[in-house]
Design goal:
The structure holds 2 protein chains of 2 kinds. Chain A is mainly alpha-helical. Chain A has 5 helices and no strands. Chain A is elongated. Chain B has helices at residues 3-20, 59-67, 110-114, 140-144, 178-181, 188-196, 212-219, and strands at 45-50, 83-89, 96-102, 120-122, 128-130, 151-152, 171-172, 201-205, 235-238. Classes of the chains: A mainly alpha, B alpha+beta.
């Protein structure tokens, strides 16, 4: 009985140690800080969105500009509607959904040199 | 293909459709489209501007620049201009006229011919646009346009309107308010002119026999600016 109890205690300690080490490692690696304003499902699973959102936008933009197809599903406007910050109304800024991750990955983002980063309903002032 | 030959073929097809059976058409008639439907070759958007009703006001210019977020920096030589008022005066008689001038949405646009990247293009429904994703800002189109309708954005832009992207280093011009037209609305200049101005501007589908613009062009005299260039413009004038 004592042996089993000791075993459980040792296992618990080991697990705690492991978790601690993992946490320490996670703290050493800088992670992007951003707010997901509207959680839940996006237009595709999260893994696919992280990897392929730029391809989706690229296809959509050509269809919209050239053929006049304004399908809301993969449109940049639709991204902004969901992901813009509640405080600033924008996807840019320090904790902005687009800007923070792109700054982390060191990928320049060109969309917002021409397109507005603001949600349609102008509830907040520009950042 | 020669445009006249193309038109003749179109009539031929329409006649064949009519002969086939009533109610069965080889070419569908133009109708309003949903956001999931591509711009159609059956339509051709255009403007008809009656200069005799065009007064000294500039509500069309103000409305356009407000709708599209076109703001200047107080430098008229380089600020973007999507639409402007032009004054004409007969030197001998002193007779003065004023008219709004913007992209004429040609059927054979010189700006499209000269574009090295294919950014300048004509949409199937006749609206001439710049795909700013591929525009490199070379300004060939600015020089090629006989109407001086295009501007290049010289300085960084902020405060763009949703649906109307604008950015430094790209060329832009009147889009016939394509974002509004796709929603089934009329361009901002036409709306403003009919609300606050001289009610001189009409917008519609040049190909639609039921449209007012089609009926007026068929029954009343109208002209194109620089008709000698045979560009078949989508913007027509009356009283010029």
């Amino acid at each position: 009985m004592m042996r089993i109890a000791a075993g459980i205690v040792v296992a618990a300690l080991m697990a705690a140690g492991c978790a601690d080490a993992e946490e320490k490692r996670a703290r050493r690696i800088a992670l992007p800080v951003f707010k997901i304003e509207k959680g839940g499902t996006c237009v595709a699973p999260i893994e696919e969105m992280r990897r392929d959102h730029m391809t989706m936008l690229l296809h959509q933009r050509d269809r919209t500009v050239r053929q006049g197809l304004r399908e809301p599903r993969n449109s940049l406007g639709n991204c902004i509607e969901c992901h813009a910050s509640r405080e600033t109304g924008s996807v840019l800024g320090k904790e902005g959904f687009c800007a923070s991750c792109h700054a982390y990955a060191s990928v320049s983002i060109d969309c917002f040199e021409c397109h507005t980063p603001l949600r349609r309903q102008r509830t907040a002032a520009r950042p | 293909m020669n445009p006249h030959r193309r038109q003749l073929l179109g009539w031929g097809a329409a006649a064949a459709g009519a002969a086939l059976a009533p109610g069965l058409r080889l070419i569908e008639l133009a109708q309003a489209r949903s956001p999931q439907e591509a711009a159609s070759k059956l339509q051709r958007w255009g403007l008809l501007i009656d200069i005799t009703k065009c007064t000294d006001c500039d509500v069309c210019v103000t409305a356009c620049h407000e709708e599209n977020g076109v703001s200047g920096h107080g430098r008229p030589a380089t600020d973007a201009q999507w639409i402007r008022k032009v004054s004409l005066r007969d030197k001998r008689t002193g007779y003065a006229q004023t008219l709004p001038l913007m992209c004429q949405h040609c059927e054979d646009p010189p700006c499209v011919d000269v574009c090295p990247t294919g950014a300048s293009f004509r949409r199937d429904d006749g609206i001439v646009l710049v795909d700013k994703h591929t525009c490199i800002g070379c300004r060939y189109c600015v020089m090629a346009c006989p109407y001086g309708a295009r501007s290049v954005v010289h300085e960084a832009v902020s405060g763009q309107k949703a649906g109307v992207p604008r950015g430094k280093g790209t060329v832009e011009s009147c889009t016939l308010c394509v974002h509004r037209v796709d929603r089934g609305q009329t361009p901002a200049c036409v709306e403003a002119c009919n609300r606050d101005g001289g009610k001189a501007m009409a917008f519609g589908d040049l190909n639609d026999p039921a449209a007012e613009i089609h009926r007026r062009l068929k029954s009343e005299p109208s002209s194109q600016v620089r008709a000698d260039l045979a560009l078949n413009t989508g913007v027509r004038y009356q009283g010029l």
